[in-house]
Amino acid sequence: MTQDELKALVGQAALRYVEPGGIVGVGTGSTVNKFIEALAAMKDQVRGAVSSSVASTERLKAIGIPVFDANEVEELAVYIDGADEIDGGGHMIKGGGAALTREKIVAAQSRRFVCIADESKLVPVLGNFPVPVEVIPMAAARITRQFAAMGGQARLRLKDGVPIVTDNGQHLLDVSGLKIAQPLAFESEVNQWPGVVTVGVFAHQKASVCLLGTPSGVRTLDF
Ligand code: 5RP
Question: How many whole angstroms from 84 Cα to the centroid of ligand 1?
Answer without folding.
Answer: 6
